[in-house]
Amino acid sequence: MLEVEGIHTYYGLSHILFDVSLKVSRGEIACLLGRNGAGKSTTMKSIMGLTPPRQGTISFKGKSVMGKKPYQLARLGIGYVPDDRRVFADLTVGDNLEISERRSGDSATWTKESVYDFFEALGHIDHRKAGLLSGGEQQMLTIARALMTNPEFLLLDEPTEGLAPMVVKTLEEQIGKLKDRGLTVLLAEQNQKVALNLSDQGYVIDRGMIRYHGSIDDLRDNEEVRKKYLLV
Amino acid sequence: METGQTITFAAFANQFLVGLSRAMILFIVSSGMSFVLGVLRVPNVAHGSLYMIGAFSAFSISTFLGGGTMGFWVALILSPFVVALVSLIAERALFCHLYEREHLMLLLFTFALMLILGDLVKLTWGAEYRSFMAPLTFRGSIPVLGSSFPKYNLFLLVVGPLVAIGLWLFTNKTKIGKIARAAAVDREMVGAMGINVSWVFAFAFVLGCFLAGLGGALVAPTISIAIGMDHDIIMEAFLIVTIGGLGNMWGAMLGSLIFGLTLSFGVLFLPQFAIAFPYIAVGVILIWRPTGMLKSVW
Ligand SMILES: Nc1ncnc2c1ncn2[C@@H]1O[C@H](COP(=O)(O)OP(=O)(O)O)[C@@H](O)[C@H]1O
Ligand SMILES: [Mg+2]
Fold it and tell me: Which residues have a beta carbon within 5 Å of ligand 2, which is an ion?
């Protein structure tokens, strides 16, 4: 569904991603594991068109999406959940969802009601300003907001970062349910446990380069790679 | 001592109402500027020029229709749309290509636009004074609290709050208004939700300019319409937005009231220095609250 081929991304003069390639097939969860600063978020932003790569190609559903703007990628079916949450703090929970709503043709479409069914905690705080929510609630809201765009593919950037273990567990379950509903996910994580539980295949990134790629079982067994690139 | 004796309650009430109605014009113009500033983060230096075009358009439209009540209302309603159209053209043809650039570029563009529009007004309407008459129903005065008060100013006192309510409903109750508020703070994230922020900005810009045009059309019956009116208003609008809180509509209201009322009480107490009063108030407020009285939107 998503193919990233040899991309190089820069922030101004600093070269951040070096020849990053990855592939995510429809219906699976792929994880992108790496330490803080490894280049996970930059990879996500490159795919979303927020930091367009200077070299390489990205295609989605078989078509090149190079040079497309973030809003165009969202309309093609890519949902984006940024690592720093970025809820629209001044708007209520309900308004955050309402302004993100994009109806898709089919019947499995997400609406505010179905999103509140999915994240029950959000349904109770429809009128609260997003800026006043707890970290866990904000994280649910960013995922819910992305779902309202009715994506086929979800970029999830460190959804569990900084959350209490109980909340992490709930989120993990919910992300698993999204997969059951047919969503394809690229999950960036530092939290190996969550990523290994959820994913079908794994990529390991370090200093802007993909260092390992394999099935999740192989990655789980490969103590050496995990020690070398993921231990802090 | 001497002045103290001559100020009657009637004169006081009268000046209060004059100040209030002046504040309504200032509010309509500066809330538009504040809205553009809040969403696009650019002070529109050409805002005063659009206000001037609003006034001249009102003159031309009503003249074309032969004046009268009908001419007044059509001019009042159409002029803001004329201004909105001018701003839409400027935005789509030139301004929108600069959104990806630094803010300084946007600021320079609005400055250039001010000069261009100033010249266009001169070419179109010339340097003479023009006038736009209120209909008979609004001419003359009625007694209020023991003094006579121009009817047209009462009309302004009705329109100002209506604009405030309308703008509030727009930003808080409509989807596009909420999107504009979100884009003010995080346009990248709004884009990532599939919204073409460029059109949101266009809409916000045009709406703000519409208010400039409305202010210009509304003020027209109370002044001589002439080139140069853009400069006076832009300075006042900038100061009002600064003391009110950037992008905050209620701040624009509060700032306008302070500006309008200090001026009219200045006229009452120390007429020869009246013009200085609003500026002294601005100075005091900025020392007291350098970021403005109400919260900036970003
Ligand atoms: N806006 C930016 N400007 C310059 N450098 C940045 C910026 N954002 C991230 N970086 C750098 O890019 C590298 C990768 O960052 P990032 O992709 O955020 O890593 P991760 O998400 O894996 O923690 C880091 O060295 C970071 O310092
Ligand atoms: Mg990150």
Answer: A 41, 83
